[in-house]
Design brief:
alpha+beta, six-stranded antiparallel beta sheet, 7 helices, disordered N terminus
Amino acid sequence: MNSRMTFLLNPILCLVSLTAINAYSSGAGPGACLELKPAHDNLDTQTSTSPFAVIPSKTNYTASDKITVTLEARCGYKFIGFLIQARRADNSADRTEVLGTFDIATNTKQLCTNAALTHANAAYKTTLDVTWNAPSTSGTGHIVFKVTFVEVKSKFWQAVTSKVVEETGQPALDLATDSTESPVLDNSNCPIVPTGIKFAQNSECGVTRGCYSDCGADGCSFEVSWNFNGNNPNADFTLKLKASTTETFSQYIAIGFSADNKMGTDSVTECVYAAADSSVDVFNSFNTGRSNTRNSHPKAAITSLSGKLENNVLECSFTRQKDGANDVNVFALSTPYYMFFASGEATAAKAIAQHTSIPLVSSAVIDMSKIEIHSLAQTGAITQHTTTTVESYQHTTTTVESSVVTDLYNTEKHSASPTTRSLVQAHGSLMTIAWVMAASIGLIIARYFKQVWPNSSFLGQNIWFQIHRTCMIVALVATCIAFIIIFADVQDWTESPVRIENAHPYIGVLVTFLCIVNPIMAIFRPHPGSDNRVYFNWAHWAVGTSAYVLGLITVTIGTRMSRAQIADSAVWVMVGFIVWQMLVILCFELIQLLASKKRYVTSYELQTKGAPQQAPQEQPKAESGTLKIGLFLLHVVVVVAFTIAVIVFIAM
């Protein structure tokens, strides 16, 4: 195999390995097998009655039995994640061993050596039936099913336990305390969840205090107010944050100060409530890109703080030094900034957890030295927002007007608007057409068919060249349109807690650049036979091959992007395509190698001096032409099938 093919196959082989390593970014990880606890920013499980039930189809079982277990959400709740296991229920038995196996259901995957089942994507679920297979030998013992349900990333119920399923023929049950059936909500008697809680606007707003809020005729769901002694240039600001809430667990409200209306390079002040001791504390942090990190001196420039959670309203007051205590991450409030308001859950240690929707942003910059009333931006201002993990916790926010939090498990993904979702689907579909179909066919035809149709032409050019050029034009146009679509939609770099996903936009930009450069090189290529032609040939091949390999990497990573909301199995479709492409390249190389010694070349017969000169013999088709054409047609069919399969996953 020549050096060019080695250069091409090695990166593709590495891509297969990379894809396999990154194949699960949704669903519980292996570390959750023992305690059924997701690693969610060290957040604690909910202690309230579970709104999710675990219902086995049988009360008794025998060896090799199958039991359907229904996971059911109640009282209007939904879950995005789960992890289910079967464990022994007897007091004297080993209750840590995970028993039996689960069949894979739609959008699920096995875990813990197939003895557990977890979700494969973060779609909302209200009910799900899974099948458990009892061990083939008797003596397993009486069992219960334990399930951890994730409503949102920061809110989960751990090890919700079913009623006991007894094994026929075994000794009487000695029920362990931790195997007792968990209490769950009843649809006939759902608790009343307060919604639309409002409080009256501060009467001092616009009189002695500046205010930023969503206050209307029916009241406010959040409000930030402040006053400032304008006669004293060194005076401090007194700020008050206030927001309605329907929860009593640890949580936070926060304000951010930004030079623009997008998250990034923002000074943040957090007001954090700890449910354990009902205390309220205030900290400074900073947004770098989409990530938030608490400052090394988190209380710099903050004094005289107080706060409480009372009557479904969380509020805190504090004095903020005007100049920010000369900390570059604590902005001086003498400069006007856009103001953000955000809220979400917090850990017992008062670290803020991931927010779950777009922060609320002011309609214009706010000069806090003026007594004015400011409102929300009419269009939401932040068109996209994603998050990335920083140290031990993440920072995100949720709107305070809704009691339903929108978040996704184990990823940065949030619910996109229909328009945004359509643009993401269009981007992914176009890139799939460009690199799975068009570039694949164009590469094969250029590499292996120059000698198959040496004398056949179409519209004045060799057939192989016309097919190659058409395919690469399709790849170029599709790539450029997809590039424009996604940047028009996101208007920034997409970031993710999964590091490999962060490479997607950067590699995508590089692929687009190479895709544009290569045809420009082709337009100015040296004439065949010129001294510089060999340099063009190598440069054209290297740029094209690099773009192709990187294009496949980008598309494969794209199938794992949480924002794309594609089922996990899509990545294996890409793995299948990559394996197929490698096999086709190897087959063509083998055919070309075997045919190389049999191929005719143009020649002249020896002529007798003075005899008429014969014309050179025309080079016939290579003997491998029929086999090559057959393999190529099969390759086109398979590539189109893979392309359709990936697009179907994108559209689902």
